Amino acid sequence: MNITYTRPALQAEIEKVAEVAGYLWQKGWAERNGGNITINITAHIDEALQALPALTEPRPIGKKLPHLAGCWFYCKGTGRRMRDLARDPMANGSIIRILPGCDSYEIVADAPVAPTSELPSHLAVHDYLLAKGSPYRASLHTHPIELVALTHSPKWLQKDAATRMLWSMIPETRAFCPRGLGIVPYLMPSSVELAEATIRTLDEDYDVVMWEKHGVFAVETDILNAFDQVDVLNKAAQIYIAARSMGFEPEGMRDAQMEELKAAFKLPK
Ligand code: 13P
Ligand code: ZN
After folding, report:
1. In angstroms, what CA-CA distances link 118 with 164, 175, 192, 197, 267?
2. Residues 121 and 142: beta-carbon distance below 8 Å
């Protein structure tokens, strides 16, 4: 029995994950098992869930994350496809709880589906968000084609070079991804080093960071909002590429136009 069915608020969050997983597949950003999603569902955990027995032995996180005490997460399963998750999120992901000591977890429901290989980054980011009192509860890693392509040129790996270019392609990009795109130099997927570099870069005040030659990592209040930030950035990258493939360097919005936008939308940067 899917434990979310009788809990409408939890079910709604899981349905958002399934909706986003479908978009990721449709966009071509989720080849094979590419990408992962975790959401902090602690607010939806009732006493009956607290009492559920674990389905697995404790597993190490690889790091002590003190702000995750008592936390629960829904995690995409490692090796699982987003297109399968879109149909059946509880068969292609699982619910885990962090154990006392904050350096291990156990799988609680619905089935013992091992969480994503990027769990170190996801959990370390959730720990960071809680530590700073952020309302963000969702994190998304995906492989958006055009944004990943940009990172194959050193030009776009300079701090905020890609942000400025992307913001200037269409006004909505700055309005709806107001902190821009942070850059994390290439590091081994799934590594604790990648988790730490991701947090350092988010802490420079970004909601979306780019893992060089790999993909993006985005955080937001919920998973739909995380998806939207990546979607507007990738749309801007597509406009840039469309102009270049028509044979010219796009002009981009002018500095005065960008400043006007910043004031009108009361943007943070
Ligand atoms: P998982 O299948 O383990 O979630 O890995 C996908 C991925 O994109 C790794 O970076
Ligand atoms: Zn990946």
Report:
1. 29, 29, 9, 13, 31
2. no
Residues 181 and 188: their CA atoms lie apart, in Å, by 20
76 lines ligand 1 (CB under 6 A): yes
Q: Does domain 1-139 bear CATH number 3.40.225.10?
A: yes
Low-confidence ranges of the chain (pLDDT < 50): none
Instruction: Please tell me the distance between residue 34's alpha carbon and the centre of ligand 2 in angstroms.
Output: 5
| Model pTM score | 0.98
Q: Is the CATH code 3.40.225.10 the one for domain 144-269? A: yes
pLDDT digits 0-9 by tens, 10-38: 999 999 999 999 999 999 999 999 999 99
Name the helix (H) or strand (E) containing 179: none
pLDDT tens-digit map of 82-111:
999 999 999 999 999 999 999 999 999 999
- Ligand 1 binding pocket includes 11 (Cβ within 6 Å): no
Cα dihedral across residues 102, 121, 119, 10: positive or negative: positive
Kindly give the number of the ligand 1 atom that is closest to the alpha carbon of 143.
8
118 is known as an active-site residue: yes
**Is the Cβ–Cβ distance between 75 and 93 less than 8 Å?**
yes
Cβ neighbours around 190 below 10 Å, total: 15
The residue extents of the domains of the chain are 1-139, 144-269
| Residue type at position 126 | H
Sheet with strand 208-211: strands edge to edge: 59-60, 104-109, 93-98, 72-76, 36-40, 138-142, 215-220, 208-211, 181-184
